[in-house]
Specification:
By secondary structure, this protein is α/β, with parallel strands linked by helices. Helix content is 35%, strand content 14%. The chain has an eight-stranded parallel beta barrel with strand order 1-2-3-4-5-6-7-8, surrounded by five helices. Helix 1 packs parallel to helix 2 and helix 2 packs across helix 3. The longest helix is centred in the middle third of the chain and has 17 residues. It is globular, with a radius of gyration of 17 Å.
Length: 243
Amino acid sequence: MVHKCRSAQETPSFSSPYQGGDRRDKTSGLPNFRASAPVDFRLYLITDRSLFPAADLLLTAVEDALKGGVKAVQLREKDLETGALLKMARLLRDLTEKYNARLFINDRVDIALVVRADGVHLSRESIPAHAARKIADNKFMIGVSTHSISEACEAEKEGADFITLGPVFRTPSKIRYGEPVGVNTLKEVKAKVSIPVFAIGGINMDVVRKVREAGADGVALISAILNAENVRETTERFVRSLK
């Protein structure tokens, strides 16, 4: 028998952040708000400008991916100084609005607020989801990176709207997170949490069906799209495979 992260009695009902109220989890005492906007995407593109000789080429690739059907982009450039990050965030906000897509900013709630992003994506080194939501006055969707069942449960408890889980498969960009969690852990996480789970790490066209069959609601991609010879066509293939 699979046990959820919380029992049915402990699982809170979530009110819209635009309707007021402050319902709190009976166990943790943390606010129970989640974003009123649905997680309405299955393909989550994450930026990495180190894959390109110039930042404008990254923006070109992101636009090609948006043309191919990407509906959610995370700006993840942790080593950029604040001014440069803000400039890139504004450019990506313009692009994502042009193609009716969501923009998430990694970690930086302040940058997300300034550019009116749709949300933030937090890591285990970030402030917790409930704190980010309070800073943003409950206006953000919040994603959280997780690498285990316990981290997935903790992210849900703290109010994440969705999580990424990985690395599911071996990939150079995720070596520091240890051995791949594999599809079995993905299945276990999906059995325990009620929020959407995006598989990340070593995801390519050959394994999309495998992670979907394990329960993944979608996939988060970096190089599989940004390193593609034809970014738009590759994105279109991923979009079709996730329907």
